Amino acid sequence: xxxxxxxxxxxxxxxxxxxxxxxxxxxxxxxxxxxxxxxxxxxxxxxxxxxxxxxxxxxxxxxxxxxxxxxxxxxxxxxxxxxxxxxxxxxxxxxxxxxxxxxxxxxxxxxxxxxxxxxxxxxxxxxxxxxxxxxxxxxxxxxxxxxxxxxxxxxxxxxxxxxxxxxxxxxxxxxxxxxxxxxxxxxxxxxxxxxxxxxxxxxxxxxxxxxxxxxxxxxxxxxxxxxxxxxxxxxxxxxxxxxxxxxxxxxxxxxxxxxxxxxxxxxxxxxxxxxxxxxxxxxxxxxxxxxxxxxxxxxxxxxxxxxxxxxxxxxxxxxxxxxxxxxxxxxxxxxxxxxxxxxxxxxxxxxxxxxxxxxxxxx
Length: 363
What we know:
Elements: E1 3-11, E2 16-19, E3 24-32, E4 39-45, E5 62-68, E6 73-87, E7 92-99, H1 104-108, E8 110-119, H2 120-131, E9 134-138, E10 143-153, H3 154-164, E11 168-172, E12 175-179, H4 181-185, E13 191-193, E14 200-207, E15 215-222, E16 227-234, E17 244-247, H5 254-269, E18 273-280, E19 290-293, E20 301-313, E21 316-325, H6 331-335
Parallel strand pairs: 9-12, 13-19, 15-17
Antiparallel strand pairs: 1-2, 1-5, 3-4, 3-20, 4-7, 5-6, 6-7, 8-10, 11-12, 14-18, 15-16, 18-21, 19-20, 20-21
Helix pairs in contact: 2-3
């Protein structure tokens, strides 16, 4: 039997904490690898109209959530109520909440400031401090001549800035997390899944050539230095495409131009092959982890977990995975033509793969 534990609503300013687990009929926790914040959705039955009257939640209330199974648990973290809806009959309350790390001022309050002769890490550190977050930076650092934040909120600004350097941003558990998806996709697979895996419920695969590029080209004329910085990067693993991607980003050196070309091409081509899997719930399935799919023919290979949506309710605990594979990761497909089964580690201990949470807490 699966239950939701540690699901509480803390009424801000009222010093009241309620265990709402007995009221929950459905719960979903979405763990994103980057670009979006983690979120949860709860559906509660309210036959006694408590939630419509005395226990009415407020936007901004805090929810602590975890999924507890028979043999394993998944601590989801702290979330801030973002949307509340109510319907009748039957009396149903639905709450949607986003990671508490995504504070209101970080999302909506615009700032104006500038940096000179600094680094991307230093800018990220300033943004994290301003947003009330700690910084987890696991990527190459880049020198920055000058950058301006003009009438832009902190998180959208740092997301766009990091994206221009080919890096990904995630906000989770009071942390601003910056990493290279390309680097993490290159790490060893932490899990293996086969067609006869008892955890597997369903699988769907897609391979496409549209919007897939052979090479990326960056060219930028620096207005202050009056110099042109340029670089090109080619992905030899791309199939069925000879297209070139023109990247328009500000760069401060030829070296940075190459990094931007490589990172952008990797991000764009990472969805050349995608998979959607539904499995029995487990804390092993986390965004940012690589998994090996073995025995799926042309779709076998090492995939990156882009999103893991954990759902729990009366019927049990399941997880839906959004997987992607492209570029260098596709080399793993060729190995399966010669080897029908390849053993990989089953541990989810972070080797750079589980960057998005504290493993000891079961994220």
